[in-house]
Design goal:
Its main location: membrane. By secondary structure, the chain is an all-alpha fold. The chain is built from three helices and no strands. The chain has one domain (7-62): Irregular (G Protein Gi Gamma 2), CATH 4.10.260. The longest helix has 16 residues, at 12-27.
Amino acid sequence: KMPALHIEDLPEKEKLKMEVEQLRKEVKLQRQQVSKCSEEIKNYIEERSGEDPLVKGIPEDKNPFKEKGSCVVS
């Protein structure tokens, strides 16, 4: 098992090396406009909303969390 790495314990030079390495990875990422991505996400959600049990609900006979019995407190 490897020990946890605490950034604050590293020398400043090592912190900067890690930051540069991370920035090099990030600069290679393909970026898209938020307006385009949000429209695609909205369409994806709307297309599948009929299948979504959180939107449509779960039929009582298929609900695994349905209470099996009732409890009466008197």
